[in-house]
Predict the structure.
Amino acid sequence: MFIEIIDVIISGLINGSVYALMAVGLTLIYGVSKAFNFAYGSFYSMGGYIAFLLFGISFFNNYLIVFCLAAPVLLIFGFFIEKLLVAPLRKRDDWEVKVMMITLGLALFLDNSYQVVFGARMKSLPSILEGSFEMGEFILSYQDVVIFIFSLGGILIFRWFLNNTRTGMSVRAVAQNPAGAQIVGIPKEFVFAATFAISTVMVGMGGILLAQKYFITPAGGWDILVKAWVITAFGGMGSIKGGLYAAFIVGMLEAFVGWYFGMTWTLIALFAVLLTTLAVRPQGLMGKWG
Amino acid sequence: MEHKRITVFLAIIWGVVAILPLFFGSTNFIMHILIMCLIWSVVASCWDLIMGFAGIFSFGQVAFFVIGSYSSAIISARLGVPPVFSVFIAGIFTAGLGVLVGLPCLKLKGAYIALVTFAVHMILEPVLKGDIGRALGTGGARGILTIAPMNIFGYTFTSSDPIPYFYLLFLVAVVCSVIILMVIKSHWGTAFLALKDAEEFASCLGVSAFKYKLMVFALTSFLTGMIGGFYAHYVGMLSTRMLGIDLFVTLMIILVIGGVGKFPGAVIGAFITIAVNEMLSPLGSYRPIILGGLVVVLVLALPDGITGLFEKMFSEKKQGLSH
């Protein structure tokens, strides 16, 4: 019983850390450009499929190389998707609905392209690190530890980027006041595209990390989109700190509900908690209106 | 668009649809597609009313449709209510749920509302498949396989002879679109626009956001649930596959093609989309790719849909005349 609870806590922590990585990406786009990206889950699968392709080539058969190659691909992809699909819509009054629609169309396009190209069967990636740490009944696989460290590392790098680099600071400036940022000479359009690209990288990395545990399927991204969405709304859309807390709360909640009531109840419990939170605090845990 | 032009536009559309069975009546397959067009035109019009006019990003329209169809099937099977009445009971039940979903949405904005309403969609599948659903009679993962066909005054509408059912649904769709038209024309429509454009200012002037938002939730979910009931009694079987993302996106394409907030557009969009969707079906697994690509291209190229295109043509003509 005691060991089981520790297991549940650890799995909650690990899932929470990966959710944090992905929710921070989603909340970033919303916070900076007020656009909601429905294709976010498809970008998650895209990360997994890129890694799967690279692992097919024996020369790249190493996680470090895969990360180094997948990141720029995702970055460029995200940048151009924003420039080509989202940016032209920004001029319109009702661009928020239009962005939701266009990204939903993109998601359908990408998911079914995966299905045609890679087939509907589940794909798996090799484990990043074999073996496990054992102490009596308590087992902790190294794979989980590495996933946890990589996710936290990703968030820390992202934090460093936001606080210490020029691009990161301009991202924060645009998030706080788009008009003011433009007046002092920050290229707003570029920042929008850059945040979209960064969030694509984050969710794609999350996809590679989680693919070793949960497989890659063409429509697997929807689950992730819903979870990232719930987490961002729970933590407050646009609030990165809120998203971080919310991700770990959701990870824990999911682990405990799944262990105690069964996996079918996790989604229901998630939405019940979300609705209660939003009923009391419509702006989420740490969100601000506006 | 002006109200007068909407009315004329709508009359032309329904006039054309009314005579379609003269040409296609002999082919059951095409009649089936036309019936589906009628059903989706109602759902899409409701979605347009709530999203385009009232400005509420409700993503629960498919969920309300499924709730309506399941509840009508269960009510008619379990309680022995004739399908004619069970569709209305299902509509009222769905409207109740719609108000329940609308309540938390009153305090929320934008993408949050989309999330809460989409949550209904996401939860529905585990609920229908799970123990609660099975206890209510949803048949779990298998779905409901036998649903009594629609029956009015002893006359049974069967799917082997679709023309009578087509006209029944035609009547329903016309009534629904007239209701929506009346809502848009009345002070409701003005209140929706005011709340959408400047909520704070509108409520200062005494437009109750609480009342109108709940009303639009109740009305759209009532109509959607009712048409869901008609759908259930037509196809005769239900499963949770309807909750897949394909149907949701199809509905969205209808709105994209028709134009968001351009009312009769959703009706035209429904007919075009469902017909094109059927024509693409020989392409198999490439079809959703094409549909997805189509959405992307259409949103960029035709942001106001076909109705927007018409409007542009009309306004250019007017300008040309005034010169």
Remarks:
- Residues 14-221 of chain A form one domain.
